[in-house]
Amino acid sequence: MGGGGQQTDRITGTNGRFGTYTWEEVQKHTKFGDQWIVVERKVYNVSQWVKRHPGGLRIIGHYAGEDATEAFTAFHPDLQLVRKYMKPLLIGELEASEPSQDCQKNAALVEDFRALREHLEAEGCFKTQPLFFMLHLGHILLLEVIALMLVWCFGTGWINTAIVAVLMATAQSAMCFHMRSAVCMVMKVATYKTSKFVRVSVGNLFWTVSASDVFVFVRVCPQGASAGWWNHRHFQHHAKPNVFKKDPDVNMLNAFVVGKVQPVEYGVKKIKHLPYNHQHKYFFFIGPPLLIPVYFQFQIFHNMIVHGLWVDLAWCISYYVRYFLCYTQFYGVFWAVILFNFVRFMESHWFVWVTQMSHMPMHIDYEKHQDWLSMQLVATCNIEQSPFNDWFSGHLNFQIEHHLFPTMPRHNYWRAAPHVRALCDKYGVKYQEKTLYGAFADIIRSLEESGELWLDAYLNK
Questions:
Q1: Confidence of residue 39 (pLDDT cuts 50, 70, 90)
Q2: pLDDT-based confidence at 396, cuts 50/70/90?
């Protein structure tokens, strides 16, 4: 697991000691095949390791030439174990005269955030309560069983089918949020190998199947998706939220322009794939309805085939086999397909509105090299707490805490929130909290504003 790349005398020194580096030297190594990162003032050559990184190739590359200490701490529950894997990659450390943070980050803020994390760890906020997740999974399974039993007992009439579809969409949406917790590794186990096994098996098994009263396997989550695909995509989002070319969630495939920078760029370049000044209207037709049934579906299978994720592919196929075994006997093939797509249509709306309400209206720009707290706070906001909002969003109404502490169990976000707010107040970092309705309305408002910026630049610049 060597660091890769060529190591000169400057790196090892003639006396066998590691080298010392300035930030200027570190920042020269940012291109694929030549990437260095800094963690806890130590310099690592990750040029070759990126290809074997469990979190994906791109996420390390997003921090090439930067201080990755805060991201390193945020994503790895067992830091001592990960440090062992990193030893062969170590090539030196920062010179004593160099600051620990790059790009003029506020050292006091970074240190206070580190202290906050240690305080929350000491309070047990990173400890998982298995009962919470067992009960949550139980209510999802119950919804699935009730849906199937309704068809079995009361037939396939329109009213009954509508109720069944709502129950299935609710179960699938809830399972999405349930699996986010598992994939983000908050259900932690003792070792990395065991953890990886649990994440892959649970992330694929329950992403596609679960126990039922009739069949051994019943699907409880919507996509029939690849856990590996979701890991690599979602970890990038957490690492650099709302950063163009680094966060895949702001890649709108030219269907929308978002933020205040991209619309002007498109307008100046006279790019007009769609009438973006009307994007707040056509969002309702090509955004929530199509993300999961069309875009995610294509991307999932394309990713599994291109990268040879055959185990993931087998589990995904089992998802479709299970569904049609359950429902074609009642509806026939044609109407089972219609029901399947209608459920996905509803679930896709739920997923899009919940995930975008805390991100799309926020600041979206190119890399600004901010500290962890500032970067996450400009890209995320919270939705006010209530029992319904907690359940409806899968605790993503605490999006700020979710992003600051991605390995914290979701049932503890409310405990961390007051501490985070106090730290933000101390340093003048804006901590935004909205109503659920206000957050939904802000999605449309932000699209309308971005469309107007595009139109002005397109016509006048």
A1: very high
A2: very high
Beta-carbon count within 10 A of 32 CB: 11
pTM comes to 0.86
Are residues 144 and 235 part of one domain? yes
- The full DSSP string for 251-303 is --TTS---TTTHHHHHHHTT--SS-GGGHHHHHHHHSTTTIIIIIIHHHHHHH
Quote the percentage of the chain above a pLDDT of 70: 86
Distance CA 143, CA 163 (A): 11
> Cβ distance 218 to 148 under 8 Å?
yes
Q: Are residues 179 and 40 in the same domain?
A: no
* Reported confidence tier of residue 304, pLDDT bands at 50, 70, 90: confident
Those residues with Cβ within 8 angstroms of residue 52's Cβ, 6 or more apart along the chain or in another chain:
1
Q: Is residue 408 part of a domain?
A: no
Q: In the chain, how many domains are there? A: 2
Residue 212 CA from chain centroid, whole number: 29
| Paired sense of beta strands 30-31 and 19-21, if any | unpaired
Helix (H, G, I), strand (E, B) or coil at 72: helix
Do 146 and 66 fall into the same domain?
Answer: no
Q: Does residue 371 belong to any structural domain of this protein?
A: no
Nearest to residue 120, comparing CAs of 438, 350, 419?
419
In a domain, 165, yes or no: yes
Give how far Cα 93 sits from Cα of 19, 25, 36, Å: 7, 11, 11
Q: Which of 68, 122, 121 is nearest to 408 (CA)?
A: 121
- pLDDT tens for 380-389 read 999 999 999 9
Do residues 202 and 182 touch, judged by C-beta distance below 8 A? yes
Last residue of a domain, one of 298, 330, 354: 354
What domain range includes position 287?
130-239+283-354
Verify that 305 and 220 share a domain, yes or no: yes
> Looking at residue 27, which CATH number applies to its domain?
3.10.120.10
Residue 61 lies in a domain: yes
Domain limit, last residue, from 328, 354, 380 = 354
Percent of the chain with pLDDT over 90: 66
Write out pLDDT tens, residues 235-294: 899 999 999 999 999 999 999 999 999 999 999 999 999 999 999 999 999 999 999 888
